[in-house]
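Protocol step 4 of 6: structure prediction from sequence.
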Amino acid sequence: MYIVQKHTSGVSVPRPVAVLLARALRLPGGGVQAGLAELSDMARLLHIYRRYYPDEGGIEWTMRKFCEYARGLGHEVSALVSSRYPWSQRVEVNGVEVIRAASVGTVANTPICPTMPAWIRRRRPDLVEMHHAYPYGMWALLQSGYRGRLIVHYHFDISRFGALQKVVTPVLQDVLRRADRIFVNSESYAKSSPVLQHWLGKCVYIPPGVEPCKFDLQESQQERVEALRAAGRLRVLFVGRLSHYKGLGDLLTAMQWVDGELYVIGRGGMESRLRGLAERLGIGERVHFLGRVDDAELVCQYHASDVVVLPSVSRGESFGVAQVEAMLCGRPVVCSNLPGVCEVGLEGETTCLFEPGDAVALAGELNRLAADENLRLSMGRAGRSHALREYDLQHVNMRRWEVYRELLEG
């Protein structure tokens, strides 16, 4: 089934054909010949992962923003993801074609979509970006017979497949062998990854990006921030998914020894367990689960906080974009000393580190910041400068596109 695009003549044509015709027939600046020349530079790009916007998550956000960036450059961009239903859907989201392939269920949190290989063949992409970790998508790519340019975006190591790991590992290695380039958030994460040891020569180190302007405090938000700060106690903030690898149990444990309030933004399957832990620790009244908040409220919560914490405990966390968001809001960060995560900021300048799982050390860092307002302010200023310099989304997308351009022109 095609999505069709209507023209004033009343004739309906398949969307890919409509795009080609529209671009070829742009008469100003050279007429049809110029339009056809422009077509020769237009690439067909395909991203593959489990989900796409409006689903939440750092990978989904990163994928969406680059797809829209590439579309803005004039290329034909599609995202192939899993449907939640046993039928396929095709929609357009901000100029990006999103194909949700029919799903027949999940195995180890992996959607099974038998039509994915056929969709890949039908799109005939010039370049595919495969977002890891989605083992079925990798298998579908191999089964499709695709032989074009391939980038694997290696977001993090995975080890949650249990007995299926023996099946997943060779598929992943086959895809990495096929890849022309491998995007990784940081060099230390790649070098410490047991999976990437044989493929370091293909790795390109590009972190996620953030849109700085979205974290500027508007004058209309100032009153809200002042109201949030009214309690006067140290205000500790966590932003992220409530999952096992995020280390929230350690943060709650540490809060026993910190005179302050903890605000938790995010949703996830561990919420009821974490609420129970807070009650057992006797800090239930000082821990506030806010759930999901809108973008404006998130900015206010960041600006109202004294410190932002990322206490992750496993390699399921390879970056932690909440650190960048906190720095853009001028807030110091306390994070665990994990590869990739510990490199987002600058230790001692923007960020305080502690060993993963060490709640006592985490409490010590929070109390050190609580006792020194000048330290918090100076780290916040340094953090904002660092984030603007290293993680502006426009600059990050430009770096990624340079890799695309090299492969497409090679």
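Step 5 (inspection) to follow. The first helix runs from residue 15 to 24.
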